[in-house]
Amino acid sequence: MGETVLEAIHINKYFHDPVKVQVLNDVDFSLSKGEFVSIIGKSGCGKSTLLYILSTMDTDFEGDLKIDGVSLLKKKEAELAQVRNEKIGFVFQFHYLLNEFSVIRNVMLPGEKLGKLTPKEIESKAYEKLKILGIEKQALKKPNQLSGGEKQRVAIARALINDPLIIMGDEPTGNLDKKNGDLVFNIFKELAEVYHQSLLIVTHDNEFAAKTHRIIEMEDGKIIKK
Amino acid sequence: MARWRQTLVAAIGVTFSITMFIALLSFMAGLNDLLDGLMLNRTPHVRLYNELKAAENQPIDVFSKYKNQYNFIGSIKPSNQLLQIHNSAAIIQALKKDKRVLGVAPKIIAQVFYNVGTINLTGIINGIEVEEEDKLFAFQTNVVEGNYLDLKIISNSIILGKGAADNMLVNIGDRIQVTTTKGDQVQLKVVGFFQSGISEIDKIQSYTSIATAQKLLGESNNYITDIQVKLTDVLQAPQVAKEYSKLFELEAIDIQTANSQFETGSFVRTLISYSVGVVLLIVAGFGIYNILNMMIFEKMDTIAILKATGFSGKDVKRIFIAIALSIGIFGGLLGLLFGFGLSGVIDQIPFKTASLPTIKTYPINYNPVFYIIGGVFSIVTTYFAGFFPARKASKVDPVDIIRGK
C-alpha cells in the first residue's frame, strides 16, 4: 500500500534511573500511507514509550527514525517541534484542551503556529474539521462545557488541522465509555478509509485493535507480531 | 491566562513600586531644588572682592641674603588698606562684555551695629543695586513684608532681616539707628522685612541701596566692595573665577567652592531616593517571579500540549516572557500615572514653615526623566523576573507530563 510515511529502524531504548533497564529491544517496523495500525500489548511492555519516540518528543534512544523519508536523528529541538507541528497529529488518553480558549481556538492553535495560512483560512479549515467530526455546533463553547466524548473529538480535530502525515494516538479511547469509544473508533476508521489518513494507535483494548488494518503486538520491549 | 487574580496582584506590585518610585524621586528632587534655591540661586556664581591679609612680600623675603631660605619673621601687618575694589566701574564694564556672563551686580558689604536701646547687635548691611539684585538673585522673593523697590525710592531706607527686626521690636515705617565701624551713627527707615530661610542670616543681614551704603560709610559714589557675577553656565564658575582673579588682581571665589556641602547633600539625597525606588522595583520583580513560577506548575499540561503540537521551547519561553512583560508594561504604565497623581497630591499638601516664607505646599519636581527611568526600569525588572521561569517552562519535557497522567 503506497509510500512509507514512518520508519522505525532498530530502535533500542534504556531507562537509566534507578538501574539500567532495556525497555525497547530492536523495534523495527514501517507504516505506509493510509494505513490504520494499532499497537497492543500489556501495561509496561513499552508501547507508549515507543509512541513517544516515534512522535519525536523523546530523543533519548538508539537506532534511527524516519518520517516522510527524512531521518530525525540529528535534528535540533526547534526542528523537531516543526516536524511535530506539520507532520504529526496527536490524540492522547486525556484530551489536553486549553480551557482558556474556545473549542475553535483550540483546534486552530497548531495551525496558527504553522503559520502557512491566514487566520481566516485556518478558522474555516477548523470549522471543516469540526464538521467532519460532527461537533461544529460546539465551536464557540469552552472545552469544559463539553462532554468527554465531545472533548476527545475536539482533540482529534486539533490533530487534523495541519493535515498531518500521521495521526498518533495514545489510548485515545481509554477514558471513554463504550458508546463514545465506538464513535471515536468510527471516526478513525473513516479518516483512514475516506481521507487516506495514516493512523498509529496505541491501545490495550483488543476489541478496538481487532478492527484496525494491522496489529503490532509487543511484549517486553519487543515486537512479537507485526 | 486563568490566574487573573495573581497576575493582577503582580501588576499591582509593579504599579505600587513605580508609583512610589516616581513620587519619591519627584518629591526628593523638589526638595533638593528648594534647598538649592534657598542658597545656591541666591549666591553669585563668582564673587570678586578684596581681602584684608598680610602682605605677601614681607621685607625679609626681599632682602637678598635670605632669599633662598624659609623666613618666619612677618613684621608687616595688614595695612589700613580699603576693602574697596579699585576701578570698579571699568571692571564691571569688562565683565558685562564677557559672553559667559549672564549678569553683574555690584555690592557693598558693611559691618555695623544695630543700636537697640543701650545694647548693640552686630550686623551686616548689604548695599545693593536693587533691580539688578532682583533680576539675578530673586531678591524680591525674600522680601516678606513691604515693597522691595522702596529701597531705591526712599533714601536712607533699610530692609531688615526678619530675625533682626524681631529682636529690635520694630515695624515697617519705624526708624532704627546703626553705628558703623568708624563710629558714625546713622538713622535708617525700615521699609521692609527680609527672610532668607536661614535664621542665622536673618538675624544679621539687612539690605539698603548702594547709595545709602556709601553714605553710611562716608565713601564716594564709586566705592564698591564686591562684584557678584552670574554666569550662563554654572559649571564654568571655578575656571572663570581663577581667570578673573588673575586678570583683575582680586580675590575670586566660585559657587562650587563656597557651597560644596550643598552639592554633597543633594547628591546623597538623590542617591537614597534612587536606591529605595530600585529596591521597591526589585521586590516587585520577585513577586512576578513567584507568580510566574506557580503559573508554570499549574500550566504544565498546557505547556506539554503546546510542545506536543509543535511549539518549540523557544515559543513557550516567548509566551511566558510576554506574560511577564505585559504585567510590567501594564503595571508600569499605571504606576507612572498614579505616580504623577500622587506627586500632584503631594504638591497640594500645605507646607508652611517659618524659615521658608515663599513655600506654600510641598515641593515637587515633575522631571520627565524620572518617568522615563521608572518606565524603563519596570520593563527591565519584569523581563528578568519572567526570564528564569520562562526558561524553566521551555525545558518542560512533554513526555513526562503526558505519561504522568
- Give the fraction of residues assigned to helices of chain B: 40-55%
Class by helix and strand content of chain A? alpha/beta
The end-to-end span of chain A amounts to 15 Å
Q: From the alpha-carbon coordinates, what is the Rg of chain A to the nearest angstrom?
A: 17 Å
CATH-level-2 architecture of chain A? 3-Layer(aba) Sandwich
Distance between the termini of chain B: 22 Å
Based on CA atoms alone, the radius of gyration of chain B comes out at 33 Å
The number of strands of chain B is 10
What can you tell me about this protein's structure?
With 226 residues, chain A is α/β, with parallel strands linked by helices. Chain A has one domain (33-59, 73-225): 3-Layer(aba) Sandwich (Rossmann fold). Helices cover 35% and strands 27% of the residues of chain A. Chain A has seven helices and ten strands. Chain A starts with a strand and ends with a strand. With 405 residues, chain B is of the alpha+beta class. Chain B folds into two domains: 4-39 and 262-404, no CATH class; 44-62 and 80-256, no CATH class. Chain B contains 16 helices and ten strands. Chain B has helices spanning 4-39, 59-62, 88-97, 130-137, 139-142, 150-153, 162-168, 199-204, 210-217, 237-248, 255-258, 260-298, 300-308, 313-348, 368-394, 398-404; strands spanning 46-49, 101-116, 119-128, 143-146, 157-161, 175-180, 185-194, 205-209, 226-231, 251-254. Chain B is elongated, with a radius of gyration of 33 Å. The chains are: A alpha/beta (226), B alpha+beta (405). The interface between A and B is medium-sized, with 29 and 22 residues.
Task: Name a few traits of the molecule.
heterodimer; A: 226 residues; alpha/beta; six-stranded mixed beta sheet; B: 405 residues; alpha+beta; 2 domains; 55% helix
